[in-house]
Amino acid sequence: MKIYQIYKFLDEISPFELQEKWDNSGLIVGDMTDSFKKVYISLDLDSSLINNIENGSLIITHHPLIFKPIKTINDKSYSTKLLKLLIKKDIKLISMHTNFDKTHLNLYIANIIGFDFKKESDFIYTANIDMSFDKLQKYIQDKLNLPYLKVTNTKKHIKSISLCTGSGMGLLPYIKADCFLTGDIKYHEAMEAKELNISLIDIGHYESEIYFSDILYKLLKKYLKKNKIKGIITTSQNPFNYIKGK
């Protein structure tokens, strides 16, 4: 199969034109006329993953390997080190980032959580609930199978929640709900939310987006089978380890 063939199908699933201006979704490594026999699907890339991928394959990730122009290719940065490995093994790379967030990923997590979420904007889903904060945090931890939670509790009772997978604290000015669920919450962002009287539950960047591979594989399964292309679900490892105290 040629890259342009599967690219067209991916574009129908989640149009690349929907990506944010700062994003770099699309074909990142390779040419539209390149051929491949296997497709690997992963949230991210790391060297261990690339070393285990068959030469000449296509890998589709959620996060793009490259965001900014590259002036030098060497082993001194994450992106250029992996780029060298991809080129050496003739592995093509397509990424589906903010376009897939908008069309599939946020809605998928909303459905897992199970409340009656409504789409408020491209990245924000909001639901009305009636639950104590203590009960809500335990509920979210169970639903998303989170090893631990980091929270900012400003309200004992929650009547509405908003959700954005990945790293969504840049959207805080647009959040009107009592509680915001997102990942990568920083100290000063939590301080700001506290002053705005918005509770926070950090659902993790990796943890809230790890479902990407399963979602995309299900969407591609029939297409790949029809074209006799093997699809393989894989994923990079979470760079964080969680250590319990005494």
Can you tell me about this structure?
This protein is of the alpha/beta class. The protein folds into 2 domains: 3-96 and 209-233, NIF3 (NGG1p interacting factor 3)-like (Udp-n-acetylmuramoylalanyl-d-glutamate--2,6- Diaminopimelate Ligase, Chain: A, domain 1); 101-203, NIF3 (NGG1p interacting factor 3)-like (Udp-n-acetylmuramoylalanyl-d-glutamate--2,6- Diaminopimelate Ligase, Chain: A, domain 1). The protein contains 8 helices and 11 strands. The strands form 2 sheets. It has a 6-stranded mixed sheet with strand order 5-6-8-9-10-7, sandwiched between helices. Strands 1-4-3-2-11 form a 5-stranded mixed sheet. The chain is globular and about 55 Å long. The protein starts with a helix and ends in a 13-residue tail after the last strand. The model has no long low-confidence stretch (mean pLDDT 95).
Q: What would the principal axes of the Cα set say about the shape?
A: globular
Low-confidence stretches: none
- Major sheet: size, sense and barrel closure? 6 strands, mixed
CATH H-level homologous superfamily name of the largest domain? NIF3 (NGG1p interacting factor 3)-like
CATH architecture descriptor of the largest domain: 3-Layer(aba) Sandwich
SS content category: alpha/beta
Number of strands: 11
How many whole angstroms does the radius of gyration measure?
A: 19 Å
- The number of helical runs is 8
